[in-house]
Write a structure and sequence with these properties.
This protein has one domain (about 1-125): Lipocalin. Helices cover about 0% and strands about 40% of the residues. It contains no helices and twelve strands. It has strands spanning about 1-5, 5-10, 25-30, 35-45, 50, 55, 60-70, 80-85, 95-100, 110, 115, 125. The strands form three sheets. Strands 5, 6, 7, 8 and 9 form a five-stranded antiparallel β-sheet that branches. A four-stranded antiparallel β-sheet has the order 1-2-3-4, with no helix packed on it. β6 and β7 (about 60-70) form a beta hairpin. It starts with a strand and ends in a 23-residue tail after the last strand.
């Protein structure tokens, strides 16, 4: 679940044992002292699940990952697939990118950059990171480490 002001966005299905025959969705709700109001529902393909909190930007856009055929109790990485999706503030899809395996982690962002990592280690990056504190000639390296509990 992600919160921005009085807006809450959350996805369903991302729990061990959730059926691959069920249709799950991403929801955006406005919360008030009187209760909540559903702003929109974005349905996913049958069996596609949201395992991590979505990312909300200040314009109301939503970035999130969804995966098919993933179960943390099974060793079926080769049979999974993942997607990075972007929705506008009305819940309409504006972008979708496929990954070669499930993406169960959170979408990371920085100034001008969005990235996510599939369980296979495939990195999806969109945009260009801007250097906010270092001069352009100071080029560094990044090491990405990941693990999977068995």
């Amino acid at each position: 679940m992600s919160v921005y002001g009085r807006t809450v966005v959350f996805g369903t299905g991302g729990v061990t044992g959730a059926s691959n025959q069920q249709q799950y969705a991403l929801y955006k709700v406005k919360v008030s002292s009187e209760g909540g109001t559903l702003l929109w529902r974005f349905p996913l393909e049958t069996g596609t699940k949201v395992w991590a909190p979505p990312l909300l930007d200040s314009q109301g856009n939503v970035l999130f990952t969804a995966s098919q055929n993933y179960d943390p109790l099974l060793d079926n990485l080769g049979q999974t697939s993942g997607h990075l999706l972007a929705l506008n503030k009305e819940g309409e899809k504006i972008s979708e990118h496929d990954a070669d395996a499930a993406i169960v982690g959170r979408v990371a962002s920085s100034a001008g950059l969005v990235a996510t990592v599939a369980l296979s280690g495939e990195v999806k990056q969109f945009g260009t990171a801007s250097r906010l504190t270092e001069p352009a000639e100071n080029i560094g390296s990044v090491r990405i480490l990941s693990w999977r509990q068995r």
